[in-house]
Amino acid sequence: MRNRLIVANWKLNGNWAFNEMMISELSAGLGGVQSHDHEIILCPPAIYLQQLNGLMGDIPLLLGGQDLSEHFFGAYTGEVSGQMLKELGCRYTLVGHSERRARHQESNELVALKAKAALACGLIPIICVGETLEERESGKMNAVIQRQIQSVMECLEDDISQVVIAYEPIWAIGTGLTAKVEQAQEVHEFIRGVLREYSELSAQKISVIYGGSVKAANAPILLEMPDIDGLLVGGASLLSSEFLAICLSSLNSK
Ligand SMILES: O=C[C@H](O)COP(=O)(O)O
Q1: Which end of the chain is more exposed for a tag (fewer CB within 10 A), N or C?
Q2: Could you state one GO biological process linked to this protein (predicted)?
């Protein structure tokens, strides 16, 4: 019932030659593989979306932004709007990644406005939530994640089923530490419970994906969990062989 999503977040990485090589290698590895309920989404730096859009041809890949402005146009130097992402071929956009929450002081309220702006532009927001190690160890994890989700749900009102949630324990991002599968499943189940407070149907429909040191080696076991509907991959998405292995393990697991 829920779509399976494998999302590559390239963060501040890529260049013209690297992008060409990645598309060529992903094309060779994924050629001919089609699945109506799997989506593989590349989120490169916004400046490269146009190049990638031109390179992708009929390869079964989609594009996403890494962030967007909560504004649609105007005097907001350096920002990229949802319409701009849409024009460059994006179907998705990340919103509220922990690196933006921490480094750019993005509040829950701002993340909610960005998610709303994304939907208004016809993009599906992938809303990132997750706790720090300190929050986990001091027992605040559930409250933190619940608040992150509630802010968005309260702002979106009727549109809540149109989003994707990405759970990323901040302590597992880029550290080589991955949440144990049982820990990840437990939080995903908790997230589904929070969604259920708004709508049972939405809770069943919204894909909740996991991120944090995902690799080819741990992807299959994560994807076996009943409430993990896909993966948000950082570092390993920059290595075509690793990323392909993750995509293929997802495509073969259902
Ligand atoms: O957006 C991706 C996440 O921040 C995970 O990054 P990572 O796979 O390098 O830990």
Answers
A1: N
A2: gluconeogenesis
